[in-house]
Every structure is written in C-alpha cells, then in structure tokens.
C-alpha cells in the first residue's frame, strides 16, 4: 500500500489523542481482543479493550478488518550508524582500538538516515543499535525509529557491548591449529581480565581525590556496580560455556548473551545460567558444514523450549525491516507463532530493560504499535498505520516514493523522432 | 590378427560408451496435492505421474504403474523446482580477474560437487542454479547452468544437459574498483562502455579474418591466429551465447541496451539491476529481461537509490523478471523472497511463483524443459507442507528428474560427501555475510573499503 505524497505535499507526523476502532488487538501480554478500541493520548496508551469510551476530542481511525500489534523490536542492528556499506565515510559503528567501551552509539546515530523510514514502515518501531569490532567496541543504545535528534529517538536503555574471545574459525581461508586457537584465547582472556580488574578497582577508588581521568575504564564501572547491563556477543558452543563461566566468576548482575548462534547445542546450560539471549540472524546458514540445514532456523525454538528467555535480532541495517520474517522462520521451525511474536515484542523489551515502556499493548505503556492487514509474519501482509512514541508516523519512505514515481513513469521525450512534422512545400 | 584388433577396439568403444554417464532418472506418482502448475493455475486434489524423469500425466485418480512408487501429498503443495538465476555455490573459484575481458574461461571447469550448499539449496526447494562467474571484469567468463544432483561426484553429472551457453558481463562499481586497484582501464562508466564497444569491434574484425581465410581458395593461405577469447565474443555477436549482465544504475543499463542495439544482439538479461525500474519502458521496448533481488539495497552507492518495489514495477511494465539469490543463504528461501512481490507490489500467486520458476527458466533458455508443471517437462519438483508463498511453508521433498534428493523425514544432519582427513578441528564459521554468501568479488579486488565486508555483489 503506497500511501505517498501528493505532488509537493509533505506528510508530517501527527501527535495528540487518537482512537483506533474495530480492531483485532494483539496485546501480547493480555491476550487477543477480537474487536476492540485503542485510545492513545500524548504518547501513552490510555485505554484498550472491547468496550472503551472514545473521548470526544480524539481523532478516530476506523481500522475494521485489520489487526494491531505492538511495534516490533530488533534486538541487534547497526541501523542509523551506517548508510552505505561499502563506503568507509558512511560507517560510524566501528572505532579504532580494541578497548573503547566509552564510544556512544546513541550520539552517532543519524536520525535522518534514509534507512530509518524504510525500516519503520514495515512495523519495526524500535531497534538496539550496536558498535562493532574489537573487544569492547562501545555502548549500544535502544532507539525508537522516530525523532529528529538522537535524544528524541532514545528509547531508554544503553549497554556495554563485549565481544567474547571466539574459538570460531571466522574466515574460510584461515585455518588455525588447535594450539594456535588456545593461545589466542588465553591472550585474549588475559587482556579482558586485566581490563575488568581495572574496572573493579576503579569502582572502589573513583571518588578518591587524585584519581586520573580514564574514560575506557570509567565506562565499565556501571557494569561492575550492576547499574548498566553488559551484552556479551558469543556464538560458538564452547565459547558460550566459557562466557557463562567467566561471568559467573565476575559476578556482574545484568547480563545478556547475544548472537548465540550455537545456543541450541548448550540450551540447557544457558537456561541454567538464567541469562536471557538475543539470537539471530535466524535466516542464516548453519555454523558448521556438518550441521542440519535448519540449524539457524531452529535455534531460537530449541533455546526457548529449554527455558531460555529469547529475543530475536536481524543483525542487519538496511534490511532490519525483515525482522518479522526472521521471527516467522523461527516460528515455522519449532518456536511457534506465539513465542516468536513475544521474541520480537515483550521479550525484546524486557531484555533491553524497557519492558515497562514498550513491547505490549497495555494501558500506561508508550504508543508504539502498527496496524496491519493480517499476520505480520506472513510476507504478503501490509502495514497500513504506524505509531511511534505517540506520533502517527506517515507511511512513506524513499522506496515508496520511488514506487509511486516509476510504476507509471512519465514517458519522456523521444529525441529520435522530430517533435513536429514540417511539411515541405 | 587384424580382425581380432578390430573386434577388441570395438568392444572397448562399446564398453566406454556403456560407462558414458547419464543422469539418473526416476518414476514416481504424486497423489492428491495442490499442484501449482504456474502456467495453468493451481489444481487442487491432483496427481502428477512421472516416468523416466519426465512429467507424463497430470490429473485426478491416476494409478501408479507397476513398480512405480506412490508419494502421498495430501494437504501438501507441489510446484516446479525453484531455479536460481544467479548463484555462486558449488564453484571452487569465482573470478578470473586478471584481465577486464576473460570470455574464454568457463565455470564448467570449477564446478565443486562436494559443496554442501548444494544440499542446503535442495532443502529450500531449488533444483537448478545458474553458476555464474564473478563481477570483477567487464566481460567475464562463461556460466554453467546446473541441476542439483547432490551426491554425484563427477562435475559433468551436475550439468543441465542441453542448456544454452551463457556469459557474465559486469558494469559499474565492481569492475571499475578492480581496474582502479590495478591502474588500468576502465575506471569509470565511460571506460566500461568503450571497453565493450572495443571488444565487440575487435571480435568483428577477428570474424572477418577467419571468414576471409575460410573462403579463400589460395593453396598457400595461412590461417589467422585462433583466439578462444575472440571466438567467444564472436559467438555472442552471433546470438549463440546469452549475455547476463551484472548492473545496477539506470544509466548503465540504458547504455548496454544501446551497445547491444548497435551490435545487433537481441537477447539480454540484466542481473541485480536495482535501478532497472527507472528504465522499465526502455527495457520492455528492447525485449531485455531482469533478474533481481527481492529487497537488497544500500550496500553500495550504486544501490542506494533502490526500491524493494523493483520487481513489481518491472513486471507491471512488461519486463520479464525473475528473483535470484546471489547467496548461499538466500537461495534456501527463494520462495519467501518471491512472496515479497506481494508485499512490495500486488502480484498474484502465479506471478510471484513465476519469478522463481518459469521466468528464470526463460532467461536461461531452458523453459522448454523446466519452470512449470506441464506434461513433457522434466520432473524437477518441490513439495511444501504449506503454500510456498506463506512464511510457514517448510520444504518437504525435492526431486530432480524424478529422483528424490531431499526428504525432510529422512534428513540426517551431516550431509557432507567428503570430509578432509587432514582437518583437525570442526570449523565453526559465524554469520559473516561476506564469506559464504557473497562471492561476486571473491579473488578479484586487491583492495576494497573495509565496509565491503558485509556485501560483495
């Protein structure tokens, strides 16, 4: 459905009081309301139910025949930090240096990135955008996909990203021997332990008089104190076990494991640890050539069934809009529709520490939701309306505008033929 | 003695021809499913009989002849095996990037039957692929159309016998990047156009020299030098080799239409063609076709101004369009990619499915053999438990020439047919989009921006 601009009219987001009526509402946490009304006021969900009083001054939107879902949340992207993959100048998620946890993804987000509207018109309203590379690449942030400054987009959570040393081979053409891998691991763990030892020491002495300015270590202190979560990127099975052991040894309280591509191999251990996970991409090839073809598709379902709290991510940028299809594949290969929907709504919100604000349609939560023609996992379903942070966001993006211009393009002038025939006398 | 020798040699010839390999062909009766014919609508509760690798009957209440196995597909969906018109799986090398024109090389020499990606593609309902040369050069090597007969270790057994010859061309950032790294032409789109025109002109002169030599009755005539590269270009000019051109920007697509017009080459397929929608009327007027991504964009400057509605716009403007993967990951869910034309566009079920069956078959010149469920066509068939355009569709079985190569109920995890005895550790490879998926530039670019790590198309 390409609802785009007419001529030079620029559609602007609207704010205020709205009532969406005759909708099938998937609250996610409180069941499905077959035929209900959703009232929002100044960014907050004021009422939702089958028999809700519609305020006189609300703008009424009749969505009969359609469905309402909480805005989808992508648990891992570089959205807003990168516009064109092949151009170094367009990339802002990777800073030089292995230990740079103080780098803030939030401030570097480009709120006007073309990729943002393209993503939100597919119903993804919030993403976790992450620095990449090195050991401690920086501080990730949750952002809503509407706002003119990073602060306006900020969705309420930041977290330290840590890339746990990997035993995985990585490149096809680089094969390290077991010894070499072990040595690499030991060196990496030594560096990591030294860094966190410093952080723990700094936490004790930071209020002393002559403590020097040490941004890399200062950024880690909130994790030591349990105030900020740490997101540990770890994928190979043995690495996941090593990471769990390391974290238990350190005793940090707020921990999330991300990636967990081989989580299915150690699902019970992850469940036992109590740590939640952000898994994905689901549409990915198996980590080993000996694995079943559907290892990545089935991964989230296996972990979920073992008792792990699972959120999903695309680990994409310009195609974070495909989040519902990653979830759809997870659903089809063992997770089930209900759990898969939770994985991209309430679970993701709770794991990102903003479960009291978004992730479900409940009174008091923020108005982050979309209206669709049907099951958002089904590819042919179209999104017709979008609310982010209480703003009714126009359903337009550069892709839609290009569709409107070129579906039936102006013919243009054919210069091979004369414009007018001049008759010779 | 002489007769003995003759008899012996005859025997030898007979023996070797008896061992001359033919692709295995099967017989099977599929009963009671929804048959998505592509050309004749969706037939419910219908049977399909396969004899000797060909579809022999489509109808209701068919009975299995003696010795023919019946496969019950009640409640399931049967469609033509999916055809990926742009693939780099099953190839041990992708780019001969040492020159900007390498028409003489061919992917048939680097087919790797041991690539487990073949099996994984079968598990996604794919039966045929167009194994393409990379995009490092303006005129690349010849491609190989293949059938995914997993388990065959002789590369020749994976050929799609009788498929027309095709060749890879490339425009835009990939070839210019390679040339910039080497300090040669073409480093701009201007240079690419002239390299094409120059190559075709030289080929025409080469052909003239040979024609003159062949026609000459001079007993002392000397043959011109034989040049396989030039000969291949001559074959292209004479319409014997179908050109598939990697391209993105609308202006370079238009440029190639003009070049092909000038050299009288009527058939042309643009690959990727992210901006083809901007020149859809021109493409339709020429009769050129497009093989595109469902929604990939923004990984390079030349795809920054794309739209996911590309396939739908082309289709509505009368351009024959297919959807391809160019990826060992995406190939496994092309049925899902095709459905995106119903999200980014309003294509019908048959139109969407044609994007991954009949349309690529036409672009590869194999539509007389595959691409739809019709009597007489090859029994390349994929069975799904739900309608293939549904996100919940899980491929159940995949057949090539009536032989089953994938069965989800008989699918052991480790499908490798060769394990390197010298490998000491089980290699775990993480989802790095570059490594497994996008090989178009592999081995070609000497230097590229660090951010090409994510996509190399």
From TrEMBL, chain B:
Keyword Mitochondrion carried by entry: no
CDD domains linked to this entry: Met_dep_hydrolase_C (cd01309)
Domain Amidohydrolase-related: 310-394
SUPFAM superfamilies: Composite domain of metallo-dependent hydrolases (SSF51338), Metallo-dependent hydrolases (SSF51556)
Keyword Signal: yes
GO molecular function: hydrolase activity, acting on carbon-nitrogen (but not peptide) bonds
InterPro entries: Amidohydro-rel, Metal-dep_hydrolase_composite, Metal_Hydrolase, Metallo-dep_Hydrolase
Protein name: Amidohydrolase
Span of the signal peptide: 1-20
Keywords: Hydrolase, Signal
